[in-house]
Amino acid sequence: MSPRKAAAQRDGQSLHDLLVETAQKMIATHGTTGMTVREIARMAGVADGVLYNHFSDKEELVARALLEHVRTTEAELGELPVPGEGTVAGNLHRHLEFGLALHKVIAPAFRSLATQPGVLERFGEISERSGYWRDRLVTYLKEERALGRLRQESEVDAAAALLVGYCHASVMAEVFPHTGPLDPPSADAIVEAVLHGIAP
Amino acid sequence: MSPRKAAAQRDGQSLHDLLVETAQKMIATHGTTGMTVREIARMAGVADGVLYNHFSDKEELVARALLEHVRTTEAELGELPVPGEGTVAGNLHRHLEFGLALHKVIAPAFRSLATQPGVLERFGEISERSGYWRDRLVTYLKEERALGRLRQESEVDAAAALLVGYCHASVMAEVFPHTGPLDPPSADAIVEAVLHGIAP
Amino acid sequence: MSPRKAAAQRDGQSLHDLLVETAQKMIATHGTTGMTVREIARMAGVADGVLYNHFSDKEELVARALLEHVRTTEAELGELPVPGEGTVAGNLHRHLEFGLALHKVIAPAFRSLATQPGVLERFGEISERSGYWRDRLVTYLKEERALGRLRQESEVDAAAALLVGYCHASVMAEVFPHTGPLDPPSADAIVEAVLHGIAP
Amino acid sequence: MSPRKAAAQRDGQSLHDLLVETAQKMIATHGTTGMTVREIARMAGVADGVLYNHFSDKEELVARALLEHVRTTEAELGELPVPGEGTVAGNLHRHLEFGLALHKVIAPAFRSLATQPGVLERFGEISERSGYWRDRLVTYLKEERALGRLRQESEVDAAAALLVGYCHASVMAEVFPHTGPLDPPSADAIVEAVLHGIAP
DNA sequence: TATGAATGAGTCTTCATTCAT
DNA sequence: AATGAATGAAGACTCATTCAT
User: Fold this and answer.
1) CATH number of B77-196
2) What percent of chain C has pLDDT over 70?
3) Biggest alpha carbon–alpha carbon distance for chain C
4) Which of A86-100, B124-138, B176-190 shows the lowest mean pLDDT across its residues?
């Protein structure tokens, strides 16, 4: 009957953030499939329509939740190597490990978004292209090259693309069991191939 | 009250095939997203219910359309290189081209799997085909290595995995336009990286 | 492509009769629930549309099949007693037995027709009110009364209605397990009650 | 774009109750046959989807409407006679009247059970009520017999079963209009038959 | 007369969005 | 700002009926 502040401010959190956080948790546990606005509201303990006071539509909320999910996950994966420190091989190893873990966690969320292209557009609009692993990998490689620890004329962008692609493929191997490589190469072999190639 | 031979036989084509073809075109242009039964019927110029005279499900129709789409495109992909002939770089280039085109066709299947997991079942053949290229790539690389045109101790399995992964990723870049790399490396750069690595 | 005589006349039977017979068998085994025209046609081995060459619509076919079902069933239940022969009690016993068996067989067919009132209207139109058990029971009782084996002023119509009702109720007791009498009286008791009443 | 309080609160009635009442009226006038979700909504003057804000199913709504219909009518049925008071004939008359009215109300349930067996589940209460009258009738008869107002050795259970059956049959005569007896006996005749039988 | 592919209105159900309070 | 009941346009699927052959 009367406006309630209820759950929204029990802990001084804005409803905006509460909704994003709730949706994020739902994404983390069940993906975005079957995630209805009513369900989100119910889990957040707020009214159905409150969403539209803070977001233009459901897509915006989901996109933000997705972004938050990626950020959160990435933040929990630990540190990435510093250029110039350790060995390049070891550092690439760490990057690969990081990338594989990241994609494994994020995949379910994105997978079910395939049918809701609008969300991905929003995601693209609100996400600033920095700080994500792919960019950090490229940056890392470029700095190592600048330091002389990689060949000056080497194709670091291509190498990054190959590594990122490998992560994607390993994720798809889980989604589509039959498409995966039967006998996946070891991380060491991957790093070795990226570093020294296969030419004589 | 209504035409009986309708569009189906305007060109001597069965309605079954007309529907598959229509769905195939829709997949090719817009993916499986938002592809409703009614829309398919409308685009085929037939009644809503026809679908169920020829397919048990919407899923069956979609799966068949997908399959047909893969077959059609695959037939246009041309030959893969023979080990020992031409240059290794050129041959890898050709393999990459083939793989990219192949995965581009497979992508739509990925989309529909999110909400229609049943499609995966009937789509088994596709994975075999996708696997087929991977195996041919590995075989090719191993034969080139045996011929001495690749380094003896090189990680050809890892190199193949990287290339396959790159194809997957490039496909996802189309499915999720905003998540892809802003400036994808050239095929030449990819081949260069695979051949010579990035180490000094 | 060309008109077929096929199954219809394999045994010199008209399609009309084949369809009625097929529908009748379906009613006997599964009731009328979910009995689609396509299914009838398929089981009769004829084309979907042939029905409309012999019946104005599905309802007419089903009504005729129902009628046939009742006739057939009734014919298989054996003889009813002849007035004046045996004892009245024994004869009533036989009538009751007959009625219970009849209703037990017919019930499933009628039950699922409850939602298709059109069929019952047709049934009423085409069924001539004679030969059915209820009428034979009334006739029997009146003749016994005329013969002096029942009280002259007795309410034989009412007695018949009570007996018929008892058969209905015993059928419903099977359809709705919870509504049936927990401890149904014996046929002997029923006959006794009908014959001598309960008044002092 | 559309009214928000709509019909629901025109008279201070909840939409839940409005829907039940609307469905109840439809049952009372036309039975459950052809009672579509859309038709219910249209007659209630509300949107198609409202139903699912208040009931899990169409079945739940129908079951509740049925139940309400039974309750309402049953409340109007009045008292049953007390053993030893009045005449037995008059009392049986009253019992018969009560039973007929009661079963008349139960009839629609019978119809809906054909295609919606799930309704039976939620309808358990009704059978208890129906059983209730039967038990009261048996009890009544036994007490009258104990009082000496019925023959000591009379089959009161059988008599009760006949009367209950008669009620069932009279209900079926309404559900299946064309199958009923063309010339139903009067209540007096029924009572007379039950009291004095038909034997000489 | 028989065929059977095509029709399309109709079924129940879901869910993002609105708006009077 | 918050509420949450009401909205209504989809969604996939069914099936009695028609009609060119």
Assistant:
1) 1.10.357
2) 84
3) 78
4) B124-138
Query: What is residue B189's predicted lDDT score, i.e. its pLDDT?
Result: 92
pLDDT mean over B63-67:
85
Contact across the interface for D111 and C112, Cβ inside 8 Å = no
Inter-chain touch D161–C159, beta carbons under 8 Å = no
Residue where the block lists tokens 């774009």: D1
Per-residue pLDDT, B105: 78
Which is more confidently placed, D102 or B43? B43
- Give which of B155, B183, B190, B191 to mutate to test A binding, by max A Cβ within 10 Å: B155
Query: Which 3 state secondary structure label does DSSP give B56?
Result: coil
In this structure, what token pair is assigned to residue A47?
A: 């009214």
Rounded Cα distance between A114 and A176, Å, is 15
C156/C147 Cα distance (integer angstroms) = 13
Q: Scanning the structure block, which residue is given the tokens 């459950």?
A: D32
The minimum CA-CA distance between B110 and chain A, rounded to whole Å, is 8
A6: Cβ–Cβ under 8 A, 6 or more apart, which residues?
A45, A46
Whether B164 and A169 lie within 8 Å, measured CB to CB: yes
pLDDT over 80 (residue B3): no
Q: What is the DSSP string of B150-179?
A: S-TT--HHHHHHHHHHHHHHHHHHHHSGGG
DSSP state of B3: -
Q: Is the pLDDT of residue A144 over 60?
A: yes
Q: For chain D, give the DSSP string.
A: ---SSTGGGTTT--HHHHHHHHHHHHHHHH-STT--HHHHHHHHTS-GGGHHHH-S-HHHHHHHHHHHHHHHHHHTS-PPPPTTSS-HHHHHHHHHHHHHHHHHHHHHHHHHHHH-THHHHHTHHHHHHHHHHHHHHHHHHHHHHHTTSS-TT--HHHHHHHHHHHHHHHHHHHHSGGGS-SSPPPHHHHHHHHHH-S--
A11-196 to CATH, choices 1.10.3430.10, 1.10.60.30, 1.10.10.10, 1.10.357.10: 1.10.357.10
The CATH T-level fold of domain D7-67 is Arc Repressor Mutant, subunit A (1.10.10)
**Topology of the domain comprising C10-196:** Tetracycline Repressor; domain 2 (1.10.357)
What are the structural domain ranges in chain A? 11-196
| pLDDT higher than 80, residue C199 | yes
DSSP classification of residue B199: -
Token pair recorded at residue C36? 């689609």
Q: What does the alpha-carbon distance between residue A139 and residue A129 come to, in Å, rounded to a whole number?
A: 13
Question: Which pLDDT score is estimated for A114?
Answer: 62
CB < 8 Å to D192, chain C: 155, 158
Contacts of D161 in chain C (CB under 8 A): 166, 169, 181, 184-185, 190
**What is the C-alpha to C-alpha distance for residues C72 and B137, in angstroms, rounded to an integer?**
73
Q: How many Å apart are CA C134 and CA D166, to the nearest integer?
A: 13
Domain B11-66: CATH superfamily is Homeodomain-like (1.10.10.60)
Q: Which two tokens stand for residue D135?
A: 């038990």
Residues 127-186 of A with CB under 8 A from B: 127, 129, 134, 141, 145, 148-151, 154-159, 161-170, 172, 175-176, 178-179, 181, 183-186
The angle at the Cα of A26, spanning A20 to A30, to the nearest 5 degrees, equals 150
Q: What is the DSSP letter of A49?
A: G
Say how far residue A146 (Cα) sits from the centre of its chain.
Answer: 28
For D95, residues 6+ apart whose C-beta sits below 8 A from its C-beta are D80, D81, D137, D140, D163
Structure tokens that stand for D75 in this block: 């409340």
Residues 6+ apart with CB under 8 A from D15: D6, D7, D8, D44, D46, D50, D53, D54
